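Is this the right way to post structure tokens for a design question? Let me know if I should format differently. Anyway, here goes:
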């Protein structure tokens, strides 16, 4: 998912699959586009066409939302989410 974060940090909308790493931070039409899978060529071209049909104001708004999303993805947040996941797994493993 780093490539998605790097694109967002550059103000570039992400086009990815719904199951790819990092897909959980992509909101279709807001900071990128989600498609059902890697072979969903029709969905992919539809998203690309939709993006290039946007006016300049909409593109700038989307770029701003990309930057905003990237700023939220701090190392500290990543560490906390990892710790939370480990704790959840441990609790589940040792549940009696």
């Amino acid at each position: 998912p780093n490539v998605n974060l790097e694109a967002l940090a550059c103000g570039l909308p992400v086009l990815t699959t719904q199951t790819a790493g990092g897909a959980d931070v992509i909101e279709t039409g807001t900071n990128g586009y989600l498609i059902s899978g890697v072979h969903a060529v029709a969905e992919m071209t539809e998203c690309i066409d939709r993006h290039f049909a946007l006016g300049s104001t909409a593109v700038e708004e989307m770029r701003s939302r990309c930057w905003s999303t990237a700023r939220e993805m701090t190392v500290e947040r990543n560490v906390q989410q990892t710790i939370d996941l480990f704790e959840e797994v441990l609790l589940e493993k040792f549940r009696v």
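Format looks fine. Someone answered above. Worth noting: The chain has a mean pLDDT of 94. The first helix runs from residue 2 to 9.
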